Amino acid sequence: MAVDIKNLNHNQLNDLITKAQSRQTELRKDKVVKLREKIHALIKAEGFVFDDVFGARGKVKRVGGTVAPKYRNPASPEQTWSGRGKRPRWFNEALKAGKKEKDLLV
């Protein structure tokens, strides 16, 4: 299929380029899907599962404990904060009320 691009105007050329790039992406995705199916079939034929061959990538849980609380709400002692992440509302409210961070330490 030959397209005579010399007779196309600017908009027609841009449209053709966009369609060609879109088609190229579709073909690549189809090829990847077929390759993935072949790999899974080969792994299964050998008696393994994907994780045996490639490991549990993306499924590994981080090992670590919880962080000890650093701050405690004086009005409600069961509310604590480790000092990491977004400040809890009670912490911000205590600061607005005139408390200092060192006053809220555990």
UniProtKB/TrEMBL annotation:
Zinc listed as a keyword: no
GO terms for cellular component: cytosol; nucleoid; protein-DNA complex
Signal sequence range: none
GO molecular function, one term: minor groove of adenine-thymine-rich DNA binding
Domain (DNA-binding protein H-NS-like C-terminal) ranges: 59-106
Keyword vocabulary terms for this entry: Cytoplasm, DNA-binding
Entry keyword annotation includes Ubl conjugation: no
Pfam family, one: Histone_HNS
Main location: cytoplasm
Superkingdom of origin: Bacteria
Protein's cellular compartments: Cytoplasm, Nucleoid
PANTHER family: DNA-BINDING PROTEIN STPA, PTHR38097
Family: Belongs to the histone-like protein H-NS family.
Name of the molecule in the record: DNA-binding protein H-NS
Organism, as annotated: Luteibacter rhizovicinus
